[in-house]
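PROTEIN DATA CARD
Card holder: Isoprenylcysteine carboxylmethyltransferase family protein
Chain length: 130
Origin: Ideonella lacteola
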Amino acid sequence: MLALSRWTGSGPWPADTGVAGAATVSAGLCLLVVARLQFALARTNIFTFDEPGQLVTSGAFRVSRHPMYLGFALALLGWALLLQSWPSLCVAGTFVLITDRWYIAFEERWLRAKFGQAYSAYAARTRRWV
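Structure generated from the sequence above:
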């Protein structure tokens, strides 16, 4: 994103977004760490294409079914705001789109197949992103 913003320039922005960008990056990284620690405490797999070991539904996972992806998305959005770069904002949006359509779709099919009704009930009460 840094190289892209330097190559393309930033373009006009409505306001200084430094504080909002830093806060968004920080929130995203905190969410990533918290969700990762929850997986570690549950002793479950973190890798997308490996079989899930446990269904984690508490903590950050009570608010979002995919808080780690949400954390990455927030961090990317924050960097785009810090850089004041429209192309970087497009990178963040592309990340969300690909993650939602490819990674999350894959994971949710696997979770539904492995955990059945428990996952379906969790998905019914917990939003995919926020």
